[in-house]
Write a structure and sequence with these properties.
The structure is a single chain. The protein folds into two domains: 1-231, Growth Hormone, Chain: A (Up-down Bundle); 233-426, MFS general substrate transporter like domains (Growth Hormone, Chain: A), CATH 1.20.1250.20. With 431 residues, it is an all-alpha fold. α2 (14-29) packs parallel to α9 (143-157) and α10 packs across α11. 80% of the residues lie in helices and 0% in strands. The protein is globular, with a radius of gyration of 22 Å. It contains 22 helices and no strands.
């Protein structure tokens, strides 16, 4: 190993960078579950309507989606470490705020709702770590190894909401809300400190920090870093935004990935209120959905590689519509509702992977910008969908939890229609 290579790898390595970036994403993405498992409990003491309950459960997804684009673009200028630390600290502040509110009185009051909403949005800042981690990992790895590295990053990080859907209700029942969130805050603070100490940006950013200009070819030969920042991130975003096909793909991701976040925060309330089961059981059923959709995303990637992104997207939305129909028709059968939930996980998991298979094909001249828009605004579905489903509960208190899945039936039908429009304008060759 040359002296230059020793310099490159003395402070970190691709594997270490992947490890710490994945851990940071896991810790940040857990913010999806900030309220989901305890909404039914807060609903009683805060006298929330179904709509307000849905907004509170979805509040982390608002900042988690909207911050993805600016923080993802920031990586080209400052590297990934500073944006990740900023987002994790904001998430920690949100958890700390929830703890403070829980200490104000014996039980949260209706007038506390705006504060919980704000702190929920702060918790959601950690979700935006995803868009920072993708380029951070990519800069450490040569292109031929990026696919596998990003699959590990996204796959393991995406498990956080499902695991927290199990752990958080159990902790709240066993320890109480304040102690549970104090434990969560402590874990996040320790994680953030470890990331601060051990995570390093790719060699390009380290050399730039030292004021050393590096030739890209020399950087690849000595450190193995094949990609360097182009400095044109926002230009790429603007170019992608001008292409109508980018917005079709964004809608697909709004339904699929946004749908996964939406159901992760909505299903605990659905199971607890619709079937009158306890918080721990509701969290376990929700975790089955969230974990399955994350793992099925990996299978969806393999399916997209083998059969093509178009066929996988079309089939995935047909499956999603089928799952929504079964949820609507389940009646009082918990087994039927659970089956419908898992069919939804199958459809959305496959669609999540297939959408990004289509990005290079339909936006070949602005892949980075299109990926930022699709990933950022698509995730906004996690905020927009739960309040829509809550409206059905407001209109039909008894049957509304089942009828709310009309939302996914309609969204999936529109996705299928848009797919055929998009497919008619497909490029002649695969990019």
């Amino acid at each position: 190993m040359t002296e230059e290579e020793n310099v490159c790898h003395a402070v970190s390595s691709p594997r270490m960078a992947l490890t710490w970036t994945t851990i940071a994403f896991f810790g940040g993405f857990a913010g999806v579950s900030a309220f989901g498992p305890i909404v039914s409990q807060l609903k009683q003491t805060m006298a929330m309507s179904p709509l307000l309950s849905g907004l509170l459960a979805a509040s982390p997804a608002l900042t988690g989606s909207l911050l993805r684009i600016p923080f993802g673009a920031m990586v080209d200028r400052v590297g990934g470490k500073k944006p990740i630390l900023t987002l994790l600290l904001l998430a920690a502040a949100g958890i700390g705020g929830i703890i403070l509110m829980s200490q104000q009185s014996a039980a949260p009051r209706p007038e506390d709702y705006p504060y919980f909403l704000v702190f929920g949005m702060l918790c959601g800042c950690g979700i935006a770590v995803f868009s920072v981690g993708v380029p951070t990992v990519s800069y450490w790895y040569p292109q031929r190894r990026q696919g596998a590295a990003l699959a590990v990053y996204a796959g393991l990080g995406n498990l956080a909401p499902g695991l927290f859907a199990i752990l958080l209700p159990y902790m709240v029942v066993s320890l109480g809300l304040t102690r549970s969130y104090l434990l969560w805050l402590g874990m996040l603070v320790v994680l953030t400190a470890l990331v601060f100490v051990f995570m390093k940006d790719a060699p390009y950013f380290q050399y730039r920090e030292m004021g050393i200009e590096i030739d890209p070819e020399a950087l690849f030969l000595t450190c193995g870093e094949e990609l360097v920042p182009s400095g044109r991130a926002f230009a790429s975003i603007l170019k992608a935004a001008a292409d109508w096909r980018t917005w079709c793909l964004t809608y697909f991701y709004f339904v699929s990935f946004g749908g996964v976040i939406a159901l992760t925060v909505w299903l605990p309330t659905y199971w607890a209120e619709r079937f009158r089961i306890d918080m721990i059981a509701a969290g376990t059923l929700t975790a089955a959905y969230s974990l399955s959709s994350s793992l099925l995303r990996v299978a969806g990637g393999h399916c997209s590689d083998r059969f093509g992104g178009e066929g996988t997207v079309l089939g995935a939305f047909v499956v999603t519509a089928t799952g929504a129909l079964l949820m609507m028709a389940a009646g009082g059968s918990l087994a039927a509702a659970f089956s419908g939930q898992m069919i939804l996980a199958l459809g959305m998991g496959f669609a999540n992977a297939a959408v990004f298979k289509l990005v290079p094909k339909y936006s070949p001249a602005s892949v980075g910008g299109a990926a930022g828009i699709v990933g950022g605004l698509g995730a906004f579905g996690g905020f927009a969908i739960p309040p829509l489903m809550a409206l059905f509960v407001k209109w039909h208190p008894e049957a509304g939890y089942a009828r709310g899945f009309w939302v996914f039936l309609v969204l999936s039908a529109v996705a299928v229609l848009l797919f055929f429009i998009l497919h008619r304008h497909a490029p002649a060759k695969e990019a």
